[in-house]
Amino acid sequence: MHPMIKPALRRAWRDRATVQFGITPAQAVVLSPVDPATGHFLDLLDGTQGLALLYERARALDLPPAQVDELIERLTAAGVVDDAAAGGPEAESLRARTQALERLRPDLASLSLLHTEPGAATARLAARGAIRVQVRGAGRVGAMIAAVLSGSGVGRVDVLDGGTVQPGDVAPGGLAEQAVGERRAAAAGRLVRRAAPGPTPRQGRDPERTSLSLIVVAPREPLDVHAPNAVDAQDWVRAGIPHLYAGVVETTGMVGPLVLPGGTGCAGCLALSRAERDPGWPRLLAQWRSGRHRAAVPACDLALATAVAGLAAAHALTFLDGDLPASTGSRWETSLPHLDWRSAPVGPHSGCFCGAAGKTRGVQASGVAGSHDTMAG
């Protein structure tokens, strides 16, 4: 073990015998009492030294090995200490890719606060390099989602879309002005490669055999955001592929639902429930889909699109890292000009093909907020 005070946690002294790690209530940990020798020893926990060397350095401070072990155990249990050498072979491979790791250090620091066990953050960040995600849509929202996922270390991000890049597709963090007139899929592919922190170990080794971990559906057509295509959803549900919807409709941004096949409500469930609540909805939808009533220029506020893309990418990464975001079985919406995010559940429907209704094992996602217990001696 190479103990290391997590770099993301700032340290400050409340008084001469009390030290606090972390700023926010969600992360703050207080250690007391701390004598001068222990305070000096804390400076040695930087990940560069193993326990054997730390014991020697501690003896010079009159700290016996048993006291060192107790201190490290307490700090580790509170989520303050990481292990700079833990995480397994994939983590070691990531550490060897120094340029990529330097790019990803802020992400690693964030993960270390979410996953408190030593080595867990590095292992999760390294695991992203073996993940394959598909983004369907390369407009303002979809292109930015793809870039963020790639820049966050996801090893393979495929972007599917047709047609050519239009001036209205251009956005900071998304497609560049130089891409106007080019094929959307090709331009988005270059964007993904530019955003990546570096090549991953899996690139060049049978990438087609890597199974999809997630599909992010970010269509440019507003109707396909508001009323997702149930035919596509049927294929993904039958293939067992989780998928997340995101996009902008008029002045409303939407993220979710994240669909876990067979476990949460899908696009088919959403369509059936909406038709039950509003018998006129199918007729309206058929007219809008006919093409005669489509807006010549669909509304897509740039700031709103950026907010939606960021939230969707964050929800996707939460899922890919092994947790369930709040969009699991729920759709989050916000509207201009007030931008108050609100959620609406998308429950399973008994008449839907997905078979999620009536399952005894439900899937529930909730926001997680909390803080470590205060440590007192």
Short note summarizing the structure:
The chain folds into 3 domains: 3-83, Outer Surface Protein A, domain 3; 88-125, no CATH class; 130-345, NAD(P)-binding Rossmann-like Domain (Rossmann fold, 3-Layer(aba) Sandwich). It is 38% helix and 15% strand.
Question: If you had to describe this structure to a student in words, what would you say it looks like?
Answer:
- The protein is an alpha/beta fold and 377 residues long.
- The protein folds into three domains: 81 residues, Outer Surface Protein A, domain 3 (Alpha-Beta Complex), CATH 3.90.930; 38 residues, no CATH class; 216 residues, Rossmann fold.
- 38% of the residues lie in helices and 15% in strands.
- The chain contains 13 helices and twelve strands.
- A seven-stranded mixed sheet has the order 7-6-8-9-10-11-12, sandwiched between helices. The protein has a three-stranded antiparallel sheet with strand order 2-3-4, with no helix packed on it.
- β6, α7 and β7 form a beta-alpha-beta unit.
- α4 crosses α6 and α7 packs across α13.
- The chain is elongated.
- It starts with a strand and ends in a 32-residue tail after the last strand.
- The C terminus is likely disordered.
Distance between the termini: 24 Å
Q: Overall mean pLDDT score? A: 90
**CATH T-level topology of the largest domain:** Rossmann fold
Globally, the shape reads elongated
Percent of residues in helices comes to 25-40%
With helices defined by DSSP (H or I, 4 residues minimum), what is the helix count? 13
Number of domains: 3
Largest sheet: 7 strands, mixed
